[in-house]
Design brief:
Strand content: under 5%
Structural class: mainly alpha
Distance between the termini: 86 Å
Shape: elongated
Largest sheet: none
Number of strands: 0
């Protein structure tokens, strides 16, 4: 008997597993084991343990936050977002829960966009906009996914909202400049690309976009210079090389 007890106590995981076996009705025992597994990055099993504990004690803020972290680690951003939002409903003032729910919403949206499920991605990014309280990254991602669906006017508005939140947010500047270029607003597009370059001098996307705008204005030598600069920054940028070949 003494030998068995020593084995149970040889480390926290062994102890907590034994506790769960002997007291499966105890939410705390599931939470303790889940926390230990989370620390060891055993995310899938940790999430199950937190789920089991929350089935017994559903309104535990810390366990919901840990469940969200475990689900994120397991590659389940949608489920993570649900957990963080549940935690936020319990403690609406928690900046930690709001930030975690925001990050999970964006991660979920990116995953759905990669899968080609743009409607689900859009819903996730809209949730991110709400949770982020003006974070430019959420507006920018919402712009990208609405533009992908052909809703250019909405995309433009989203990029402008991102820039209203942070006028120096380069990803939104690049996306807005691209829309302006494609819409024939060449002077405005040039100004926006140049602003992006001023903020991010190593942005090959900005130089390539600027080159396109300059070429459309008939400013060939300036366009060549812009494409060459883009290639100097990113030698594998095939788009700029093709643009340069077209001009030469």
């Amino acid at each position: 008997r003494l030998r068995r007890r020593n084995l149970d106590w040889r480390n926290n995981e062994t102890l907590f597993r034994r506790t769960v076996e002997t007291a499966p009705e105890s939410a705390r025992s599931h939470f303790l084991l889940g926390a230990e597994l989370l620390e060891k990055k055993a995310f899938v099993e940790a999430a199950k343990r937190f789920d089991d504990g929350l089935a017994i004690y559903p309104n535990h803020f810390g366990a919901l936050m840990s469940l969200g972290e475990a689900r994120l680690g397991a590659g389940e951003p949608g489920g993570a977002g649900e957990a963080f939002r549940s935690a936020l409903r319990l403690v609406p003032s928690s900046a930690e829960a709001r930030r975690a729910a925001f990050e999970a919403a964006l991660a979920h949206g990116r995953a759905r966009a990669r899968d080609g499920d743009f409607a689900a991605a859009e819903a996730a990014f809209r949730s991110g906009v709400e949770l982020g309280a003006g974070e430019p990254s959420a507006w920018n991602l919402l712009g990208l996914v609405t533009e992908q669906q052909g809703r250019v006017t909405e995309a433009r508005e989203a990029y402008e909202r991102a820039l209203a939140s942070d006028s120096d947010y380069v990803p939104a500047l690049l996306n807005l400049a691209s829309i302006r270029s494609n819409s024939g607003e060449l002077e405005a597009a040039e100004e926006t690309f140049r602003r992006a370059i001023g903020l991010a001098p190593d942005s090959y996307e900005a130089y390539n976009g600027l080159g396109i705008v300059l070429a459309r204005q008939g400013r060939r030598l300036e366009a060549v210079e812009a494409f060459e600069r883009a290639i100097a920054i990113e030698p594998e940028l095939d788009a700029a090389r093709e643009n340069l070949r077209t001009l030469k």
